[in-house]
Amino acid sequence: MSFNNRTRRIVPQLNTASLPDLIFTVLFFFMVVTHMRKTTVKVQYRMPQGTQLTRLTKKSAVSYIYIGKPSHNAAKANTRQGYSVQLNDKLATPADITDYIADERQRMSPEDKTHQTVSLKADQATPMTIITDVKQALRHANVRRINYSAEKAHK
Questions:
Q1: What confidence tens digit (pLDDT) does each residue in 79-95 have?
Q2: Cβ atoms of residues 147 and 134 within 8 Å
Q3: Which of 21, 42, 58, 101 is most buried as measured by Cβ atoms within 10 A of its Cβ?
Q4: pLDDT of residue 34
Q5: Once rounded to an integer, what is the mean pLDDT over residues 130-149?
Q6: CB proximity list for 118: less than 8 A, separation 6 or greater
Q7: This prediction's pTM
């Protein structure tokens, strides 16, 4: 018996010519879809829970102010009653909010200036004296829309 007479089947090789195109297409997809974080949060906060919540519609017109206890790697400066106010990537005081809002308005388009909203992301145990100081500073900066961030209450 001779086994050499059998026809050998040749497996076609995989064509990898279009593989780089596929990889770049997937890479481009993830670059477009992924949301990059703009600021590094230097305060610890647990958002309060609520039931009547709505989403912000125009995120380009929103400026964020974080209020909470300073994290371990953040400087302990600018604390009041153990809580700090964060504007962008730096810890600040409520007196710095007016300048912060003026800088934010300069970077916005004219349409966004009319819809400017400040979102307060405060720890649920933050004393109201700090919240009141921030609100007074926003009033002096002529901010008309203030949003309090919360998460949906679990039932």
A1: 667 888 999 888 888 88
A2: no
A3: 101
A4: 82
A5: 92
A6: 62, 63, 64, 65, 101, 138, 143, 145, 146, 147
A7: 0.70
